[in-house]
Every structure is written in structure tokens, then in C-alpha cells.
Queue: 2 jobs
Job 1
Amino acid sequence: MNEDKILLHLTGAKLYEDTFGRPYFALEENEGVVILAKEGDKFILIKQYRKPVGEVVVQLPGGGVKKGEELELAARREFLEETGYECGALDYLGFLQPASWRTNEITHVFFTDEIGPNSQQQLEIHENIVVVKRQINEVLSLMTDNQLHDSELSYALLQAILKGKIKTV
């Protein structure tokens, strides 16, 4: 990054151009969390419009980690805010770099099958999130048919299968 040119410096982020003219950005607070939540034979997912891709995306509930916040606490907070559900034990599945060629973002992925009663979403002003529950086999089928495109969801499903958290039929 030392030789790369800063194109734009915003609060919390910098847009760079590398020596080959390719843009990328670096966030100061670059960690996020998501939860693959299994309730019985269904996953709790969310749908929301994502401006960069211009469409509604089915994805895992989650969000940013605040400075100094523990990952598990951030995951619980975001899950409650976005879905209205609390969760019990969380298993850490690992982390991914969803677009390492474009940004320094890191997403930490958790799994739970301990879902508490639903209260009410606590959405931020910019969020418009619909909670959806989908059968596990339906999600796997949609993934197989390339109808779900979220990298965090893909990674979470793969890790959950590899670690025996969900069974495939």
C-alpha cells in the first residue's frame, strides 16, 4: 500500500489506486460478523436491498463490529437487531475475506441452533430488512442451482457442513 495512490479519504475509509491502476479500499473498522442460525429444519435469513449490486439479496443476519467489541457480543447484538431473535450458544465457524482483491474487510462467521423467542427488530435508520425462514434443503438446493449469491452465506453453509453442524440429504 505504501506506493499506492490515495484517491479519496473519507471518514473511516480510504480509496486507493494500485500501481496498475486498479482501485481498492481500506476500512479502518474492517471486521464484521454474521450468524448462520438453524431453527429446527429451517435457517433464519434476511432479505435486503443492496445498492452496490442493485438487487434484493438473501443473506445472513449480521453487521459491523464496533471498536473494542468482542466478536461474539457483536454477533449477538446484530442478530437481535436484524431479526428480533436472541440466541444461545454460538460456535465459531471461521472467517472469510469476501472480496480480498477489492477491500480489507473480514467477516467472522458463527453458527447457532439455539434460538430464543422473537421480540422485535431494532433496525438502524438506513436498514430495511425482511426476516425469512427457509427449509435447509431448500437453501441447499437454491445454492446448488446458483440462485443464492452471497459469499458469507456460501462460506457459512460450507463450514457448517464440513464441521457437522448441518446434514445434507
Note: Helices lie at 71-83, 136-144, 151-162.
Job 2
Amino acid sequence: MNLSGIISIAGMSGLYKVIAQSKNGLIVESLIDKKRIPAHSTNRVSALEDVSIYSTGDDVPLKDVFQKIYDKEKGGAAIDHKVADAELKAYFKKAFAEYDEDRVYTSDIKKVVMWYNILQKEGLLDTKEEKEEEGKDAKEAKPKVKADAKAGAKTKAKAKDTNAKPVKTASSKVKVQGVRKAGTA
């Protein structure tokens, strides 16, 4: 589940994908109707990867809350965000039991459920792809470390064989000068 580049804009419903950056703001594409619009620097923009939900313990990233709903629904759509408040709270309590009921308002729950349904409809909540990418990255990282360690050992061995004198660098000759206060000459 990759939420990077997905944003919410205050005063505008739905979610948006960042397409490009202009000098006055962002160019975004609606995930609902695929229309591209400018998001100016005066708009309040929230990246979904930075949003978290209050819980009884530490704050929980929105990504983890989406994962819990995804697991509860087995990858399907969640309840409609327009249902009665009591029904919505009961649903959210089943999906994410640790949320702080005093600080998480019904409007917040509606947004989370609406955002989940938008992302699920677009296929952006698929966790299989992310796990495969993480597995590939881990496999690729291990051989590189071994290759670097072998190269480093060869370099050290060459340095010992040549008996070269240590070279003084420019940084060892630099003296620290006093800092002048602003306004003094």
C-alpha cells in the first residue's frame, strides 16, 4: 500500500494524485473523475502518508488503519460513508478498535472510510505488489553489500602492499576562525 503522491485538498472532496509541480503550486489529478486541476500554494494540502489517527496509545498512521480495514473487508469495499453516525462508529470500532473515541470525530471517520473506498476502487490498496517489491529490494541489497565488502578488502590489501605514505588532506590543514557577530566590522 503506497500512499505517496496521494493528497487531500481542504474544501474539495475526494483524493488527488500529484502529477507535477508548478511555480505556483501543484498539478493534481482527481482519483474520482480523472480531471486535472491546479492546487495553488494557498490551498491546504495534506499528504495521506503524513496523516495519522488518534488511538489509545500512540498515533497510528493512516496506512495502518487502511490495512486494518482492508484485512477486515478481505480487500473489498468498506461501508458507505453516508450511513448513520452510530452505524459508522460501530463499523469503525470493529475495524480499528484502538481508536480514541474522544478525539476522533464522526467527520474524521467519514473521511477515512470515504478515502478507503476511493483508494480501493482505484486499486491503490493492493498490498501484494508492495511485499514483492520489498522482497526484491532485500534480495538485491544483500549481494551489493558482499560485493562492496570484497572490494574494500582488495583496496586495503593493495594499500598495505604498496607501503605508500599517508597523504595529508586539505581538511587537516584548515583552521577554525572566530565567528563575527552581526553588525561588527
Note: DSSP finds four helices and seven strands in the chain.
